[in-house]
């Protein structure tokens, strides 16, 4: 339903770091080491809650990779992906989560600025042909939208006034414009959750639509019907927005709760199975 940058010089919009040929061996070694550790992120997990040590070790390597070549999109994406897992699937103190999500948002914003400077194309003009020039464009926008979404969960009202909803919407829309199938249809998941959960504030978010929430989440499930997160988020939105469809909600949640964990997604699938069982119990009371 796939981190400290204090040592990096922040990239201004359009800035291009110096060539990093000398760092290429370190980049390759650090990425390989990080990927090996990331693949073991479920080690010692208890159901849908992972141990912090494996993913933090992966983050150390991905930081090395970004430091070796600040222009490496694969290194930046790997770091954002690891930060998402650390903040969402491991136990973490609120203050550490806030710090992590702020860091992820900074990294995501830098990466989007770098991409758009390289492509010389504004996000609003993003289309599928962009992939021919930068194959990772959709993933860059996706992980930026994810990072903004996680940041918004820890900043609530401040996020509303800083235009987080509009930023998340535009990033996620770029994903579906470029490649809608990216990461199990996650662009549609982000759009759907945004329309389902964001407050409709006059002058700020008048475009929020609960009906679009169901539409987008349904499209995500059509792209990846085996995705436990797609099942769960559609069921959650249906229960809140269209409770008369409770039978569908129950069917989705039962599928999610009983889905066999997919290789490489053991913690993630266990997490959503646990969430589905909890929501099933809540739905039974309605």
Low-confidence stretches: 1-20
**SS-based structural class?**
mainly alpha
* Mean residue pLDDT: 89
Sum up the overall morphology in one term.
Answer: globular
What can be said about the biggest beta sheet?
Answer: none
Order of helices and strands: HHHHHHHHHHHHH
Distance between the termini: 26 Å
- Provide the β-strand percentage band: under 5%
Helix content: 55-70%
Total of helices: 13
- Topology, number of strands: 0
Whole-angstrom Rg: 19 Å
Describe the 3D structure:
By secondary structure, the protein is mainly α. It has a domain of about 70 residues. Helices cover about 70% and strands about 0% of the residues. The chain has 13 helices and no strands. Helix 8 packs antiparallel against helix 9, helix 9 runs antiparallel to helix 10 and helix 11 packs antiparallel against helix 12. The two termini are about 25 Å apart. The N terminus is likely disordered.
